[in-house]
Amino acid sequence: MPGRRIPAKALSGGVLIQDHTDHVNTPHAQRAAPVRVAPSAASPVDGSGFAALARETDAYIGAFLREARLPDSLREAVEYSALAPGKRLRPVLALLACESVGSSRERALPAAAALELIHAFSLVHDDLPAMDDDDLRRGRPTAHVRFGEAMAILSGDAMLSLAFQALGEQGDAALAGTLTLELSRGTSAMIAGQVYDTLGGVGEGLSDHERLVRIHAHKTGALIRAACRMGAICGMWPDIDENRLHALSAYGDAIGLMFQIVDDILDVEQTSEHLGKRTNKDETAGKATYPGLLGLDASRAEVERLRRAAAEALAPLSGGGVALTSLADGLAVRTK
Ligand code: IPE
Ligand code: IPE
Ligand code: MG
Ligand code: MG
Ligand code: MG
Q1: Within a domain: residue 231?
Q2: CATH number, position 88
Q3: What is the position in ligand 1's atom list of the atom closest to the CA of 116?
Q4: Residue 36 within any structural domain of the chain
Q5: Candidates 115, 127, 132, 198: which one to mutate for ligand 2, based on the most atoms within 8 Å of Cβ?
Q6: Directed axis angle between helix 242-269 and helix 322-332, to 10°?
Q7: What's the structural domain count of the chain?
Q8: Residue 271 Cα, ligand 3 centroid: separation in angstroms?
């Protein structure tokens, strides 16, 4: 896949835009101390050998945020959300996808960090009063409860922007351009999905099930697909094998939809204490969900169908897909 070359001059940055922060000349040590990173919540990513990948991503994000030029109050809010104890699924997918095509996972770390920043931004905005109006996220008060609505909105904006900065600051400009295209497509689709979920307008002439697939594939599937593709692109760059990229896209599509179906099921079946976010909310809020449309048994059957589809999609990777298959197995039976 050819990446559009970005002139090196365009990447130098910092020339026209003046720093406006009060700590620009403050040594790092004097800045606000970074938040302490709590261990990621127990999940399929824990206990299956994937926790190390989540920790590597957190270390990368932590270092990246310490270097980012942000006012201290904004940095604190961004760190609060981006480093909160979550599963780090999208980074783990990117790192595993990178390994699945025979590369070392470090190559995908900037992409992994960028994906988690976008995901964290989506969660902060998803929880806002105008959206799902939630007060608990990852076992903590949501960003707007902790910092106020204005800072929550702005920290989401910042994470959206910082994600692309993280891609741009890695060494290879052509790779950065290609990853930017993948991530911006995934992010736009996620935002479209949030519009469908919150405001409707998903499209005419669709059955209820088709409508639901479209909502879920956009709001959750698109970023998961992007994670798989970005990891694979990092691993194969610059010689992209379209067959393997296609296999990882199909895997991402299957687990992306599966992931949101399980999220819908957990909203019905789990407690807030276990999940670290409010449960039993979707029905009250009138959300379109799998359990609401098909019932729990049919929803579980759909999860199983997608788990199998994900494993089958990885066939072109031969041995390379073992870890991703086992991750999909864990995601199908996750309880948080
Ligand atoms: C929650 O995502 C929002 C959805 C897209 C379903 P996760 O379940 O991955 O949340 P964290 O990152 O573990 O907190
Ligand atoms: C959120 O879906 C999808 C996002 C893009 C954040 P949900 O609204 O179901 O996610 P939770 O249940 O609040 O984590
Ligand atoms: Mg929502
Ligand atoms: Mg929500
Ligand atoms: Mg949910």
Answers
A1: yes
A2: 1.10.600.10
A3: 12
A4: no
A5: 132
A6: 20
A7: 1
A8: 18
Q: Is 225 in the pocket of ligand 1 (CB under 6 A)?
A: no
pLDDT in tens, the chain (336 residues): 333 333 332 232 223 333 333 333 333 223 233 333 333 444 666 555 799 999 999 999 999 999 999 999 999 999 999 999 999 999 999 999 999 999 999 999 999 999 999 999 999 999 999 999 999 999 999 999 999 999 999 999 999 999 999 999 988 999 999 999 999 999 999 999 999 999 999 999 999 999 999 999 999 999 999 999 999 999 999 999 999 999 999 999 999 999 999 999 999 999 999 999 999 999 999 999 999 999 999 999 999 999 999 999 999 998 899 999 999 999 999 999
> Which whole-number Å values give the CA distances from 279 to 225, 263, 273, 295, in the listed order?
26, 10, 9, 17
Task: List the residue whose alpha carbon is closest to atom 12 of ligand 2.
Answer: 263
Give domain status of residue 154, yes or no: yes
Q: Which ligand 1 atom sits closest to the C-alpha of 88?
A: 12
Rg from Cα positions in the chain: 19
The residue to which tokens 């729990």 are assigned: 296
Burial (CB < 10 A; 0-12, 13-18, 19+), residue 141, is: middle
Please report the sign of the dihedral spanned by the C-alpha atoms of residue 237, residue 183, residue 276, residue 31: positive
119 C-alpha to center of ligand 4: Å? 12
Do the domain assignments include residue 230?
yes
Look up the domain containing 63 and give its range.
43-332
194: Cβ below 6 Å to ligand 2? yes
